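Two proteins were folded this term; both appear here.
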Amino acid sequence: MNRLLPSVRQALRLHRFRYYATMTMTDHAIAPPAVPPHEPQPEDIPATNISAEALAPAPVIPATEYGKVVLAPMVRSGQLAMRLLSLKYGADIVWGPETIDKSLIGCERVENPTTGCVDYVRTGLIFRACPPREKSKFIFQMGTAAPDTAVAAAKIIAQDVSGIDVNSGCPKPFSTHAGMGAALLKDIPRLLSILTALVENVGLSTPYALPISVKIRLLPTVEETHALVTSLCKTGISKLTLHCRTPPMRPREPAIRDALAGTAKICKDAGVEFFVNGDIKGWDDAQEVIKEYDIQGGAMIAVAAEANPSCFNPNHLGGLKPWREVVTDFMLIAMSVENPISNTKFCLLNMVPGKNQMHKVLSRAKTYRDICEIMGLECTYPEELDLGTLKTQRVRAQEEKDAQIQAERAERQKKLAEFKRKKAEAEAGEQKDAEEGSNKRIKVDAEERSNSTTGAAVAELAATDMLLPGSAAEPVQAVV
């Protein structure tokens, strides 16, 4: 029978309603998931005997709404591999790490057909994205202190992202020393001019059609915070995130939510999507905060996502996954996008419990092959790229440099030894020649002295013979 009787369809609807009614879901939770594809669909269920109860109309399940739960921007934990893993586990949107606008200007956009990634490269890798896998849910966060450079950088990255966010909450010196991050909270006119420039040049009403957003921290008083939010909403931004801590506060200090309800109302009245950040532990915790403060938008997760990105998975769908499963998923994604080994190792050490033996072993790993061997995985990372962490590469480069210096030194010593040998041989030859010459001179001198002695003796003998009496020789008389 290809078509079901109406009574059969009603029975199925009733069955589903009773099933979902037993689930512990609050009125602000996500709507019940659809029937999984592997379960029998209505068209495949054969007709059966239907009871009278099944013929009664099934109650209508009210549609439920839930707020978005998103990955917060984090300098090291917001890189590509972690963004993709967060999306896999249910994150609605992912923010990228803060990237300085000036670092993008002058970059070359390089596509990798093997991984589908796009690299922005200058002297080195500045930023990596994977548009086929994340573009529709990826917000690029920018560190900037000037409208012109912000617009220039936004136009460069626009084709690979779905929104531009201005960081005006980071309290770290590398950001604030140049007037970026939390420093903008002390220069509100500059912040407003940056957002206005972005909205007018790359915003939704332009050919780039990018929603512009901003992430801020609390000001000293609730009134100052609300006044700032009101001004920011007038610039034309689409989203606003409030980190419920002041710039000097550290993550270990509890978030302050005194200004949250008022901020949510201001954004709601202005039509700006609002996100709360600070001490959000997971999907279910996010929904409670969203409902409590009537937030039209969502909540950001940071620290909890660093430890276990499956925190985006609702409890009624299984909740947190075991860390071993999470790190395996992460490694597979990291290798698929050729994530830098230093970032991969950093993220893994955040996800593996510190007291576990694997944490100690991983801390000594230097390459993807080392990590895969420890985890029992097949390594698919290109061998020619598996050069180790930056520290390992620096150590290896230093070792190679030292080895080269030693080789050059040994070569110089060899040449010096050869030079000394030849010099010694030359000196020995010269000495031999000198000795031979000296011997010749001595012999000649001896011969000369011998000849001289002989001649003198002969002359003396001859003179003696001439003077002896009765000599046969007679003196010659001179003729006058």
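Next, the second protein.
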Amino acid sequence: MTLLTYTVLTDPAPLEASAAGQQPKSTGTVYLVITNSGQQQVNWSTIKVDVPVGNGAGDLTPASDLNKIKPKGEHRTGPGTPPGTPPGTRTPVPLQRVQGSNSFQATAPVGKRAFAPGDSMVLTLENVTVAPTAGPVVLTVTENGGSKSAKKVDRFAAVALAKTAAKELPPHSFHPNNAMVDAGTNVTLNWQGSAGFSYQIMYPGAPQPVPVSGGSWSPPAPKRATTYILIATDPATQQQHFLTTTVHVRNPELDTLTATTEIKTPRVQGTTTNWGLTINGTGAAISDTSGVKGTLTAGDATLSGVATEYVKGLNAGEGDITFASGGVKVWSTRGSNDLGTLYADGMQARYVEGPNTGEGVITFPQGGVKVWSAGGSSDLGTLYVSGIRTDYVSGPNDGDGDIRFLTGGMKLWSALGSNDPGTLYARNVNGAASGRSTPRYGWRPTGGNYYDITVDTSAAGFTSCPIYLIALGGDFYGEHDLRTTAIYNATATGFSVVLRWRDGVPMTLDEAERLGWHIDWVGHVSS
């Protein structure tokens, strides 16, 4: 018989056995209350509590959970405490698991072995995982101590506590391990409930409910927001419980999407490429994620406007249209520098110009066309053709001469619509030609009272050096006595002449140019 009295209490009371397969397992706290109900002081050394370990009816906790128990002890003085220590004084008592065993032992602190009448001590085992089988559990207590009338030896006691059967819990806490994932990311669905229930999960795309067990299950990785339904059936009553949870997807993949009002998004992208349609503040752009522009392919397109760098044919080698500042250019093929050909039933334009600087221009006045020597020039150009068939040819200005084509010849008239014969001007007629140097230009000072000029006669087409007759032309108002010297350096294509004045009055080149002085000439080559 022990010298001290032992009573066991639990929280909850009674303890509830853990349900098989249930998470979390049932836990509780065991209190071993020790009192000295005798008349003598007990001097104790150790008090050891043996905990039955296993999953049976007489076991307190599974062996795998023994190390989860948190032990602690406390001694409280009572009314029989010797003078010097007030009643109700609390002193911690070391309580530890005995290494390699299923026992917990309290050891009396040095100098505090006295257990006076009315004293008490509580040994607490917290966080006890309760074994899964219901039934009574007996704890064995080994007391080592003595008193004035009893030797210090080991004495034994047994205290019992109850474990009730686990309650059948309806399923609850159905949830995914991640409620928001990217498309194609695996998720795990978790729930709690009685292991005796049967479980199934339904979700869109599953042809029938999927049997599950164990409190968790991983469905196929969701591609879009998916709601899962857990169906738990009580085998005894066939009552069904339904729980739902939803996994949301940041970038869902949809088979089809129908919107009755509108869809607002800054970008639409393909599933197998990073090319997509980006919608900006003024329109849309087809590009990859780095901003490189892509290609729009369509059978037909109706647009109010297109802004693009170029337009090309669908097939290799077909023409290409680029857009230069203020116009367009047609190239023979994409990437080529060779100009292409524009094919059209008709074309309306203010002018047509050659592709290179200085090339001729054709303008379209009312009722006809004009050929100019270059863009922006007022000098008439030359029309090169293999032949022209026309009723007449007229000069560009009012009053210019007119040529009519008759059977076997032609006639020259002084003006369009006139009956007055005109004058034929040609390079040379029967070896004779005339012309003049450009007024104001070509004069060169040669020193003293002399200027010279070289006159170009190549337009006359002389085949040999002709006889030249010359005269000085321009404005004269008697200020200078001017003379020309004899012709020199005469050839089939030109000659030179010197101008001098004899009155000694100074004259400048600016004055000669201002007065428009020039050389009129006639040349003749005898046959």
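The chain has a mean pLDDT of 86. The first strand starts at residue 5 and ends at 11. These notes refer to the second protein only.
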